[in-house]
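Two quick folds needed for the group meeting slides. Do the first one here.
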Amino acid sequence: MRYREFWALVEEVFGAAYGRTLASDQVIGALGDRTAAEAIEDGFEPRTVWHALCDALEVPEERRWGADPHRAAPPRG
């Protein structure tokens, strides 16, 4: 997963404005008490951040990959 794919999924799954707010404000224990945006800035792998964000917000597997039925889910890092 690339950074642009991470941000595209944030917007697709959570909505453009709300997704960016979540990424900036939601502190996630699995990321060392960082927000998703901080973890990305600190060099965390985008797929690791994506899985941690979805886990923290209890997003069901079937909703994690947006509307594209052909999008492959990145393996957990």
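Then this one, please, same format:
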Amino acid sequence: MDLTLIIVISVAFLFLLLASGSWIFVTLALAGILALVLLGGFQGIIALVAWGAADNWILAAVPLFIFMGNIMLVSGSADDLYTGVSTWLSPLPGGLIHTNIGACAIFAALSGSSTATTATIGSVAIPEQQRRGYDRDLIMGSIAGAGTLGILIPPSINMIVYGAWVEISIARLFIAGVIPGIILAMGFMAYVGYAAVRAPWRAPRGSRPTPREMLLSIKLLLPILIMVAVILGGVYTGWVTPTETAAAGCFLAFVLACLQRKASWKLLSDAAEKTVITTCMILAIYVSAHILAHALLRLGITASLSSFIAQGEFSPWLIMLIIYFMYLVLGCFFDGISMILLTLPFVEPILMGLGADLTWFGVILILLTEVGMLTPPVGFNLYVMLGIVKGSTMAEVVRSVLPFMLIILIGIGIFTVLPQLVLWLPGTMG
């Protein structure tokens, strides 16, 4: 059969399955298998591709980081984190809204998941802030917006999946997300401060903490900050690999649960169950995407894309803008990991043709994914807010996140024009 006809049939079948609402891993795998069947001689190839995809040591970090985050989630460590951060940030213009952002940024360094960060901090913060009369738009927008930092500030499950696919250093990718994460958190806080100064009723300022309260807050925050320092410090110095860091993080999370007298077999069982479910979902998509990528390779699409970009007279800026727009549209309909693995077989050859730095693009891709988590109809953080804030509507939640989404988009523009903001810190690593 003619290669062009096979490509048309396979791509049409892929979009048909996507439109039907099939599971993303089923869609990717079946589209790849169909192409290989039409090419002929596919016997045994699928098993070899699946094994080759899963035979990647760095993927062992995925369940470990998820397990660490789930231990923190099940043990309720977010209560201590929120109390400790609020002592230092609530006196600022914006009050406890700043605590939402600070707590999300710190918890992001422990969970690796935006949804988990949003749900955990939201469940702790929202009841108290509603009781104190804070503006509901600021509450929902700050938590949903800052919750997206869960996949930017390391560790990040999305970064591990991306880095394993394009075969770059996960440690460098992790560290590359630190400065953008800090800049975004500062941008969120600057907006909250502006909104609070302009309309003080939206965010009552808290009282100044006493010396005793500050000491107690340090006691609450110290174990969590030690965990963050171990994770980031270990990766940055290169003393341990990301996988070894994840294992150490699991141990420290359990030790913290023991110190809080919350450790139990039920806690470990619940955390392990959540970890298995999430890991199986991620790896199924990962292996299926590799099957599709192998089919594209056999069809010659990846080589053609690279050659087309390399030999064409297209502006790199225009190509990147098209890629950005594609991800912003797809983010309305797919979760982050599915979107990343669905598009990388097509996007990676284009990036290679442009000579783009894959570490830099990894951070940009995560930021684009963050926007997707705030856009309807499939923005996960929006639904988390709907579940936590009783009586809220989708229109209210979307309106609340618009300023924070705009800040992320501005960040994407800044990091595109000034890539050294992303690449400087990884460049200082050993």
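Slide caption for protein two: DSSP finds 21 helices and no strands in the chain.
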